[in-house]
Every structure is written in C-alpha cells, then in structure tokens.
C-alpha cells in the first residue's frame, strides 16, 4: 500500500511517526509551505516537513492543490491511498477521485479527525469540545468526501477530558490516539475488514460546527458563570488564548482553576498564568507583584489570583 501523507502541524507529525515506526510505505508527504515564525519572523518549516526530511521521505509544499501542476505531480507519485491529518486545506474533487476505489481501483482518502463525529465538524474541534464543557472527546477516522468532515466513519475511540485540561494538553493526547487509530485503520483497509458507517446529515447551523476562534470567541465576558469562563480559558490555551482588557491593553489568560467555596455558587475563578500585551507569560502572582495598579480592576472581575 503506497501512502501519500498530507499534514502540517505537530498533531499531524505524530501520525506520520506512527506510520514510519510501523513500517508503512510512505512514499511522499504534502505539507504547507514554510512560514515566518517568532518575533524575528524567521522562515520555519512545518513539523511534518522536519520529520519527513529526517526520515528521507520526499516532501512537496504546493501553494495550491487546485492547479494542473499539482495534479500532474499526484499522478507521478501515484499513491494507492492518501491519508490526511490536519493538513489545513480542503481537498478538491479531482484529488478525492484519484484514489477512489470505484474510479481508479485504489483505497481512497482517509482523514484523522479529532472529535467524535458527527459532533464538532470543522477546523477547531478540540477547542470547541473544551469550550463547550464536554467531558469526553476522541478521534474518528473517515473516508473523505467533498463535504467538511462528512465522510463515512471507519473507527472511533473516545477519551475523557480532565476538568482543568487545556487545549494544548488535550491536543497532545489526541495526537497520540490519532496516530494509533490511523495505523489500525490502514491495517483494516489493506486486509479488507474496514467498515463504513454513514454520518447523519447535519449542518453547521445545528451547533456542532467548530468555527475558527475569533476575537469575539476569545474575549472574556466576566458576567458569565465561572465554569464557562474557565472552559473558555483552557479551551483556547496556549493558542490563540482567551483575553481581557486591562488599561487599554490585551491581557491573555492561559491557565485557571475553579476554587470551591461554600459562600459562592459555582466557586471562584482563580487565575494562574497570564501575559500582558508587550510582556511575557508569567505566573499571575508575579504579575501582580509588578503591577499593583491592576489589583482593583482584577478584583472587580470577581476572580482570584
């Protein structure tokens, strides 16, 4: 089975590592172009590219998947199956058709999706599960179609979400689960035992579509219940980070916990880590030591540091 792997961030790199370590025939990697990163905006390769290069796997970084040049490249690579893990772009129909069993007698395009489909389709499914206070999430592998995460499901496995777990922490655990499930999925596809389960016909308007976080989703409304704010903070940490405003500057909040108390229904929100615009990330207590002016404002929010 000749595998073409498509993926970009660290989450995807873990799946690629699983394929390599389990001796799958990865004949090439498609990933996003290098991008400037850090304060000095140094051109930096995606994690998937770095790992692929270290394993001597051919890497391709097209600006677009919708050109004749890319389709010619795909025909030249001639994979039996395409595996997609957090690549970052939708696949056009001609690419999906290229590995279609009914058209070219191949194994199709398979995607590793970080939610328990059909819930939380879209690009920010891990963030959404935490922000919405879910207690469980998981990985679903699917055959890709032209819709957004709407293809037939193959395998699904759930994990519990800890009450203080952040997006970054959960992302790491799901990446490992995704790699393991991808290996199992490809094994079943190869030996002909993989099952297909159709998803219900849901739309993005039923509350299950995970839109990319914007400033409206990131800015904290201190009038909301304590748990909602806590879930918002951890669901956006470390990136893009929930924020509030302090004396005209953005104050990012990365870590919090709920301190139980008999006197307050739902407890009190305790802020643990934050970063004022132009400054560095630090413990909340250290921030207050150098910013005494902020104590009154923070107390007005009804939180504790």
Secondary-structure topology with pairs:
Elements: E1 2-7, H1 10-21, E2 25-30, E3 35-37, E4 42-44, H2 47-54, E5 59-60, H3 68-77, E6 81-85, H4 93-98, H5 101-104, E7 108-113, E8 121-122, H6 125-131, E9 136-143, E10 153-160, H7 167-191, E11 209-210, H8 215-218, H9 226-235, E12 242-246, E13 249-259, E14 268-276, E15 282-283, H10 284-290, H11 294-300, E16 303-304
Parallel strand pairs: 1-2, 1-6, 2-5, 6-7, 8-11, 14-16
Antiparallel strand pairs: 3-4, 7-9, 9-10, 12-13, 13-14, 14-15
Helix pairs in contact: 1-2, 1-7, 6-9
Brief description of this entry?
The protein has 305 residues and is α/β, with parallel strands linked by helices. Helix 1 packs parallel to helix 2, helix 1 runs parallel beside helix 7 and helix 6 packs antiparallel against helix 9.
Report what the structure shows.
This protein is of the alpha/beta class. The protein is 33% helix and 26% strand. It is built from eleven helices and 16 strands. The strands form four sheets. It has a seven-stranded mixed beta sheet. Strand 12 and strand 13 (249-259) form a beta hairpin. Helix 1 packs parallel to helix 2. The longest helix is centred in the middle third of the chain and has 25 residues, at 167-191. The N and C termini lie far apart (55 Å). The model has no long low-confidence stretch (mean pLDDT 93).
């Amino acid at each position: 089975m000749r595998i073409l792997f498509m993926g970009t961030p660290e989450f995807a790199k873990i799946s690629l590592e699983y394929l390599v370590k389990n001796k799958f025939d990865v004949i090439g990697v498609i990933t996003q172009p290098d991008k400037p990163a850090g304060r000095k905006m140094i051109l930096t390769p995606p994690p998937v590219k770095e790992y692929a290069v270290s394993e001597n796997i051919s890497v391709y970084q097209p600006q677009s998947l919708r050109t004749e040049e890319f389709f010619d490249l795909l025909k030249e690579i001639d994979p039996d199956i395409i595996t997609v893990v957090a690549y970052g772009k939708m696949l056009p129909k001609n690419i999906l058709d290229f590995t279609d069993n009914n058209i070219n007698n191949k194994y199709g395009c398979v995607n590793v999706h970080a939610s328990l489909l059909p819930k939380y389709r879209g690009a920010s499914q891990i963030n959404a599960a935490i922000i919405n206070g879910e207690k469980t999430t998981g990985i679903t592998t699917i055959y890709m179609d032209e819709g957004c995460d709407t293809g037939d499901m193959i395998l699904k496995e759930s994990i519990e979400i800890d009450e203080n777990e952040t997006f970054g922490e959960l992302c790491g655990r799901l990446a490992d689960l995704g790699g393991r499930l991808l290996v199992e999925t490809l094994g079943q596809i190869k030996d002909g035992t993989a099952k297909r389960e159709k998803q219900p016909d849901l739309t993005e308007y039923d509350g299950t579509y995970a839109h990319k976080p914007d400033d409206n989703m990131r800015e904290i409304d201190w009038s909301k219940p304590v748990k909602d704010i806590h879930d918002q903070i951890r669901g956006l940490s470390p990136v893009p980070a929930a924020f509030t405003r302090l004396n005209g500057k953005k104050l990012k909040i990365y870590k919090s916990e709920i301190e139980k108390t008999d006197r307050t229904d739902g407890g009190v929100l305790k802020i643990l880590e934050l970063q004022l615009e132009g400054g560095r990330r630090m413990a909340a207590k250290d921030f207050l030591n150098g910013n005494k002016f902020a104590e009154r404002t923070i107390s007005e929010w009804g939180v504790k540091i």
